[in-house]
Specification:
Mean pLDDT: 84
Radius of gyration: 26 Å
Largest sheet: 5 strands, mixed
Number of strands: 5
Strand order of the largest sheet: 1-5-4-3-2
CATH superfamily of one domain: Cytochrome b5-like heme/steroid binding domain
Low-confidence stretches: none
Shape: rod-shaped
CATH architecture of one domain: Roll
Structural class: alpha+beta
Order of helices and strands: EHEEEHHHEHH
Bound molecules: protoporphyrin IX containing FE
Length: 129
């Protein structure tokens, strides 16, 4: 195998655009720019891993040996940024976490007011008649 390049944190961070994208898997840096279009799992899931350690997401999916073989062709080098990526906030826009729709349970008061009104209306009708 060709001698491996060492990739610094700064170099890694310079390659975080969709058309020029490096991701980190198990301490190795891979250039996935050309692969994005071909990824069977869609490009968004890989783009979401930009600027961070993608190892866990990659392993969670249970990628096949075939998928792991593809990685060899994309290898840039060994990551030398220590655990910076784990502590630094990911700079890439991630569509997760933030946009949770308001789904909290409504206040019981909000439910009781119309019920009370309805009750009052029928009471009025009943006793008023
Ligand atoms: C350069 C890195 C990657 C390569 C080479 C790769 C390759 C592949 C390949 C070949 C498949 C087809 C199934 C298989 O053979 O396992 C696949 C499926 C998939 N990948 Fe990746 N993948 C990469 C990174 C990622 C990342 C970072 C995620 C993040 C979550 C991801 C999520 C998925 C998902 C969800 C599927 C399933 C698609 C489906 O069956 O509907 N992959 N990937």
């Amino acid at each position: 195998m060709a001698s491996e390049k060492v990739v610094s944190y700064e170099q890694f961070m310079e390659h975080q655009q969709r058309e020029n994208l490096w991701i980190l898997l198990s301490g190795k840096v891979y250039d996935v720019s050309k692969f994005l279009d071909e990824h069977p799992g869609g490009e968004e899931v890989i783009v979401a891993e930009a600027g961070k350690d993608a190892t866990e997401s990659f392993e969670d999916v249970g990628h096949s040996d075939e998928a792991r073989d593809l990685l060899k062709g994309m290898l840039v080098g060994t990551f030398d940024g220590g655990d910076k990526l784990k502590s630094a906030p990911a700079p890439a826009a991630k569509p997760t976490h933030h946009s949770a729709p308001a789904g909290g349970s409504p206040s019981p008061i909000a439910f009781l007011i119309p019920v009370a009104c309805l009750g009052a209306y029928f009471a009025y009708r009943y006793y008023g008649a």
